[in-house]
Amino acid sequence: MANDDKFKKVISHAKEYGYVFQSSEIYDGLSAVYDYAQNGAELKNNIRNYWWKAMVQMHENIVGIDAAIFMHPTTWKASGHVDAFNDPLIDNKDSKKRYRADVLVEDYCAKIEAKINKEVAKAAKRFGDAFNKEEFVSTNGRVLGYQEKIDSTLKRLGKSLENEDLADVKALIEELEIADPLSGSRNWTDVKQFNLMFGTKLGASADSAMDLYLRPETAQGIFVNFLNVQKTGRMKIPFGIAQTGKAFRNEIVARQFIFRMREFEQMEMQFFIKPGTQKEWFEYWKEHRLKWHKSLGMGDDNYRFHDHEKLAHYADAATDIEFNFPFGFKELEGIHSRTDFDLSQHEEYSGKKLQYFDHEDNASYTPYVLETSIGLDRMFLAVFSNSLQEEELDNGTTRTVLKLPAVLAPTKAAILPLVKKDGLPDIAKQIVEDLKWDFNVVYDEKDAVGRRYRRQDAVGTPYCITVDHDTLEDNTVTIRHRDTMEQKRVKIDELRSIIKKEVDVREWLMKM
Ligand code: GAP
Asked: Which residues bind ATP per the record (predicted)?
């Protein structure tokens, strides 16, 4: 399936099978805002729990908090978001469409990268087993030319953005002859900065109401609580504070379904370390987070690191874990070495000391921070889009199957009476009653059993359990596996342990 078609299929499947709905759909929706439906909410909870288990409960030195969305407005002055949380925007005068100027340039580079990949694929086909990719990309003249173009373009973009030289960003767009992707027009306005925070008010009366922002990241709720947690938890450096929660950004170029939303959820962890150790912790968390992703078995080749050329105002090193979405490799998670920027800023703006006394060194210091930050909705999209597959079957038909990692699947098993009579529904319902203490399971008696299998395949349920007339004789049922479609006869008593083996968080996290 072509990538565009695949992505359209992902969006329509998410709606049809109760995963994601457009927000306020009966009023024609709200742009870049989405609601999670009955299966989506379960999948989202399971992803969040998988992260929380790995990051908080499996680490003795990491604790979790749940800070408020509203924060004192000075927080955002201190963090730099009031002054520096901007996107460089450019308008096309003909189409009246607005774009992120840096994204236009990055998309231009992505197109050149696609050309490199094409050359590599062609050469791999030509040379067969003798093909050495590394050698090819470092010697082939055409590839080297493309790579040089990408490197010099991104370098110039990074420098212009860092120096706030927006005129040069526009000049770059013009020199590269970048056109509006919709209209093809090259009639651009100047590039302007636009702050992404949503403002709101706290208080009833107009004169006394306080101007607030909806938090654009969850991280600041952790920084302002650093000392509270350190003291009450008697935490010793290095230690981490994690949380999951909503964040809000007035994204101008909100697109690609739940990839870039205005209201979204983050799962962040701030790891407080001794100054000078940030390089080794940066490497540690890069590797650790990649292992977490890979533990879900979604294809090791679908991940890559992308080191930042242009660093955010708070970072001395940063990388993204990119995932191969249906529209190409894009950021899924950020790993940032944030230095002591945030704690020092909050010290300065609040006038309160946010230092750590190190008993080993007999000295106080402001800790440095290593951050891991992943968008829950983006992770949802990665899991969902990667799992959606069309399979050709031996009998010439196709099936649509959502091969979600079983640990994340909303429903772990569907219990199906073969027919709606002869006492089979009662046994099936009894199995549901029994299993629901341990797993999310459903009862389904509508339609022929084959159609029920297909329905559960499309929802992503790892197991279907069918109760038939033999069950009345010997207490056995047929258990069918979603991915292999293999069917086995097992005792009802064995069901719990069979399902547990497949869906248990422990089994999956052990792969890290
Ligand atoms: N505290 C650091 C921070 O917020 P970020 O790179 O701006 O860093 C971290 O965001 C992660 O949050 C991203 O890697 C992405 O997964 C997710 N994210 C950011 N903006 C988003 C948006 N508008 N919609 C959905 N997810 C978003």
From this structure: 249-251, 259-264, 331-332, 375-378
Question: Which DSSP letter does residue 129 get?
Answer: G
Say which residue the tokens 């790579």 belong to.
147
- Out of 330, 361, 377, a domain closes at 377
What DSSP letter does each residue of 306-361 carry, written as one string? EE-SSPPTT-SEEEEEEEEETTEEEEEEEEEEEETHHHHHHHHHH-----EEETTT
Task: CATH number of the domain at 462, please.
Answer: 3.40.50.800
Q: Determine the residue of 75, 335, 373 to mutate for testing ligand 1's pocket, defined as the one with the most ligand atoms within 8 A of the Cβ atom.
A: 373
| Predicted confidence band of residue 211 (pLDDT cuts 50, 70, 90) | confident
Hey, which of 264, 267, 270, 369 would you mutate to test ligand 1's pocket, going by the most ligand atoms within 8 Å of its Cβ? 264
Classify the C-alpha dihedral 302-307-308-312 as positive or negative.
positive
Residue 254 banded pLDDT, cuts 50, 70, 90 = low
Contacts of 204 (CB under 8 A, 6+ apart): none
Q: Is the pLDDT of residue 158 over 90?
A: no
How much of the chain, in percent, has pLDDT values that exceed 90?
A: 88
Of 189, 213, 192, 193, the C-alpha closest to 201 is 213
456 touches 441 (CB < 8 A) = no
Residue 357 pLDDT class (50, 70, 90 cuts): very high
CA of 375 to the centre of ligand 1 (A): 5
Q: How far is the CA of 330 from the centre of ligand 1 (A)?
A: 12
Judged against a pLDDT cut of 70, whether residue 2 lies above it is answered with no
CATH code, domain carrying 357: 3.30.930.10
pTM score, two decimals?
Answer: 0.88
Residue nearest to atom 27 of ligand 1 (CA): 375
Domain that holds residue 351: 1-72+196-377
Which residue is associated with the tokens 């109401």? Answer: 209
Nearest to 439 by CA among 378, 394, 503, 360: 503
- Please say if the pLDDT value at position 55 is more than 80: yes
Helix axis angle for 495-503 and 424-435, nearest 10°, is 50
Domain count of the fold of the chain: 2
Alpha-carbon distance of 400 to 459, in angstroms, equals 9
508 — pLDDT class (breaks 50, 70, 90)? very high
- Burial of 387-426, coded b for 16+ CB within 10 Å and e otherwise, reads bbeeeeeeeeeeeebbbbbbbbbbbbbbbbbbeeeeebbe
Q: Are residues 352 and 431 in the same domain?
A: no
Question: Which helix (H) or strand (E) segment is 195 a member of?
Answer: strand 192-195
